[in-house]
Specification:
- By secondary structure, the chain is α+β, with helices and mostly antiparallel strands.
- It has one domain: Jelly Rolls.
- It is built from 7 helices and 14 strands.
- Helix 3 packs antiparallel against helix 4 and helix 6 crosses helix 7.
């Protein structure tokens, strides 16, 4: 497994971005893309606590899901303010990714702008925020809707590892899912020999920096410090990619949900066995 550094720039023009990153689907870190955002100074733990601290939020740890636990089933619940206090003061595996803070603090959308000068197709009704404590990890996956993602990090650093979608079998992708449960920071080449063939990217995303993650790219994240991020999504993608995203959302996911609900353990075993067989069939 070879990891090379993600390209980094201070700023970038529309034409340069389109030609060298968007069209070839190559990741990029842009350091100063959000320097004029009000969010850069306004968004703090205390600010969020004052507006939504009493909201109960789902939290997730680093436990790999089993046949008896759904991928998106929370591992617990906390008041949002209590959670923010925890990630601000101590390491914790707990993270938040399915709490829509914009429903509770709609004014947050006035604190940032979209990157329309770089590309179009932003889904402006669907900004998303993610929170994590130092030591929390996001399992390797690619986004089901196949959109491009611009993710801006706040209040902390995290390590990001990326792989092109063409490596899906070599990454032991789970059938009818967009997940893999290999650990790219500690690859087990004996159990997963196809990982020796994989080349990817890595970067440390710093406070205020924006990472462009192109459509379908596999990504894994390790919060080195407690913090939070904002992701903005763009569907400036080919028609075939949009159709693939719709299939993933409305067909593939429905099949997986049906099979999990009716054949739980047999389906789980099938997916694990198939991922191993496909990956291990690749010549090393």
């Amino acid at each position: 497994m070879i990891l090379r550094n993600v390209d980094r720039v201070d700023t970038i023009s529309h034409d340069d971005f389109q030609e060298n990153y968007l069209q070839p689907c190559k990741p990029l870190v842009i350091k100063n893309l959000t320097k004029d955002w009000a969010a850069r100074t306004k968004w703090t733990y205390d600010y969020f606590k004052s507006l939504a601290g009493d909201q109960v939020v789902p939290v997730y740890d680093n436990t790999i899901p089993t046949a008896d636990s759904a991928v998106n089933k929370p591992d617990g619940q906390l008041k949002f303010g209590e959670y923010l206090d925890r990630i601000a003061s101590e390491p914790t595996e707990l993270r938040i990714f399915l709490f829509n803070i914009f429903d509770h603090i709609p004014g947050l959308t006035e604190d940032f702008t979209y990157f329309d000068d770089l590309c179009g197709g932003f889904l402006k009704k669907f900004p998303m925020m993610f929170f994590g404590g130092a030591g929390s990890k996001v399992f390797l996956h690619f986004d089901m809707d196949m959109s491009h993602v611009f993710i801006t990090q706040f209040k902390g650093r995290k390590r990001v590892i990326l792989f092109d979608n063409g490596y899906s079998d070599a990454l032991y992708k789970m059938p009818f899912m967009v997940q893999s449960y290999i650990d790219p920071e500690k690859p087990d080449f004996e159990k997963y020999p196809a990982l020796k063939n994989v080349a990817g990217y890595e970067t440390i995303l710093e406070d205020g920096e924006t990472l462009f993650m192109p459509s379908g790219i596999w990504h894994y994240m390790n919060y080195l410090e407690g913090g939070f991020a904002l992701s903005l999504r763009s569907i400036e993608t080919p028609i075939a990619t949009r159709i693939k995203g719709l299939y993933n959302l409305f067909v593939m996911r429905k099949i997986d949900d049906f099979m999990k609900g009716n054949f739980t353990h047999r389906w789980y075993a099938y997916k694990n066995e198939t991922a191993l067989r496909r990956g291990n069939s690749i010549t090393v």
